[in-house]
Design the sequence.
């Protein structure tokens, strides 16, 4: 399977703390994307990092990519209750932009 | 801008029955994806269309699943006959042909097979 794996599977933090989740994958990628899924809602694209990039920022989000270790991390700073959701990494592989999603990290931010 | 539309939102059927899901992508999006998301798991790509041609259907159980995208716009995904293990949320997504693409997801159809 080309599906990635997120770690940890579940994370619970207090509002205002930082949340870090990791993604490991198996094959070479074109790029890696992170998505958020709230309870009862669809998936929303958060941020994309290309295979030749090492770090990207978007607001309170920071993504790193280490292609030698086939891993990525997503950091959410100063978390809010509204950040409570499941977070998935998706790897873009091959020539046709097929996306393979990880197993997800369930984040709970306690007010 | 209108998002990806899917219908129905919920469907309950008996095993061995057939079911069909409909997706209307964002206007101008050439690429359309169908995913299956089983509870507690990440979405699994079933089929990818570019305009009305199939790019990848390697994970589509072709003995029971079929999909089409007529005129390169709307798409339908069909299951016939359904099995208990098909209970899942079926997500449709679309994207422009930009590189790299960003997918926009619909709300999904929650299928329960009894």
Sequence:
């Amino acid at each position: 399977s080309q599906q990635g794996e997120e770690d940890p599977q579940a994370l619970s933090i207090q509002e205002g703390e930082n949340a870090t989740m990791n993604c490991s994958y198996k094959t070479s990628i074109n790029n890696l994307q992170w998505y958020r899924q709230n309870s009862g809602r669809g998936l929303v694209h958060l941020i994309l990092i290309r295979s030749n990039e090492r770090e990207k920022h978007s607001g309170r989000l920071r993504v790193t990519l280490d292609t030698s270790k086939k891993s990525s991390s997503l950091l959410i700073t100063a978390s809010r209750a509204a950040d409570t959701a499941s977070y998935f990494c998706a790897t873009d592989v091959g020539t046709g932009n097929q996306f393979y999603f990880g197993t997800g990290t369930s984040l709970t931010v306690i007010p | 801008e209108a998002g990806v539309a899917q219908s129905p939102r919920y469907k309950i059927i008996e095993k061995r029955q057939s079911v069909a899901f409909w997706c209307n992508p964002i206007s101008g999006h050439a690429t359309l994806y169908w995913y299956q998301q089983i509870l507690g798991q990440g979405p699994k790509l079933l089929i990818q269309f570019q305009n009305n041609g199939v790019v990848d259907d390697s994970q589509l159980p072709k003995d029971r699943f079929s999909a089409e995208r007529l005129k390169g716009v709307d798409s339908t995904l069909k299951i016939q006959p359904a099995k208990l293990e098909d209970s899942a949320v079926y997500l449709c997504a679309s994207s422009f042909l930009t590189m790299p693409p960003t997918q926009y997801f619909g709300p999904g159809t929650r299928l329960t097979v009894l």
Remarks:
- Chain A touches chain B through 23 residues (CB under 8 Å).
- Chain A has a mean pLDDT of 91.
- The first strand of chain A starts at residue 5 and ends at 7.
- Chain A is about 0% helix and 60% strand.
